[in-house]
Amino acid sequence: RKEVEQDPGPFNVPEGATVAFNCTYSNSASQSFFWYRQDCRKEPKLLMSVYSSGNEDGRFTAQLNRASQYISLLIRDSKLSDSATYLCVGGGGATNKLIFGTGTLLAVQP
Amino acid sequence: NAGVTQTPKFRVLKTGQSMTLLCAQDMNHEYMYWYRQDPGMGLRLIHYSVGEGTTAKGEVPDGYNVSRLKKQNFLLGLESAAPSQTSVYFCATLDTPYEQYFGPGTRLTVT
Predict the structure, then answer these.
(1) Interatomic CA distance for residues B56 and B65, integer angstroms
(2) A96 Rama sector, left if φ>0, alpha if ψ -120 to 50, beta otherwise
(3) Which residue in the set B33, B56, B105 is minimally distant from A43, CB to CB?
């Protein structure tokens, strides 16, 4: 079983739709969680950190449920420019190693 | 600031050839990482370094060696390339708390 698992998609949604991505992790010792965004043939970039209390950045909301070992990302009012692969990431510890999920592909259609 | 740069951007090798990928950073970050990314596999950690002169194995270290002689540079070596090493290689540095900055990647094909 992969340490971080996510639905690979693709998620095809119309502009303006709300879309939710889910992710589960198996290592209960993981301390920190993130969502990264990766555009086609580009490097991953940090989208947002994920906290148990939930955090919001504009149209993006991330949530962590430690009891269920579950992470989510909600995108409201989808834009064409949101089309990308979204990577769920967990990790931390003394070596600060991050474990990446395989990514969920989002395609926002006009 | 250039951030994280990788050299070369593309390379085609024949089986058995060797090469070195260079990662350079100008952000003075202690931690540096080498990943490979393959379709359906996500990013997998090859080797990492927690500071100048240190290196450690990641999830998929076999067939690769690394060196961190200077803080700003992290080198990844392939001594005898194999087709299974065809991949996109990303270098990353770490800024606390936990934001990794990635280089643009090196696309390597081994024939």
Answers:
(1) 10
(2) left
(3) B105
Please tell me the predicted confidence (pLDDT) of residue B57: 95
Q: Do A103 and B42 touch (CB under 8 A)?
A: yes
At residue B20, does pLDDT exceed 70? yes
d(CA A75, CA B1): 32
Over its C-alpha atoms, chain B yields an Rg (Å, rounded) of 13
Total count of residues recorded for chain B: 111
Measured distance between the N- and C-terminal CA atoms of chain A, rounded to whole angstroms: 37
A29 has pLDDT over 80: no
What is the number of other CB atoms lying within 10 angstroms of the CB of residue A97? 18
- CB < 8 Å to A44, chain B: 43, 90, 100, 102
C-alpha distance from A96 to closest chain B C-alpha (Å):
7
Distance CA A11, CA B30 (A): 37
Average pLDDT in the B82-104 region?
89
For residue A62, what are the CA distances in angstroms to A34, A78, B49? 9, 15, 30
Nearest to B102 among A43, A91, A101 (CB): A43
Q: Which residues pair with B19 in a beta bridge?
A: B78
pLDDT(A3) > 80: yes
Choose among B96, B100, B105: nearest Cβ to A98.
B100
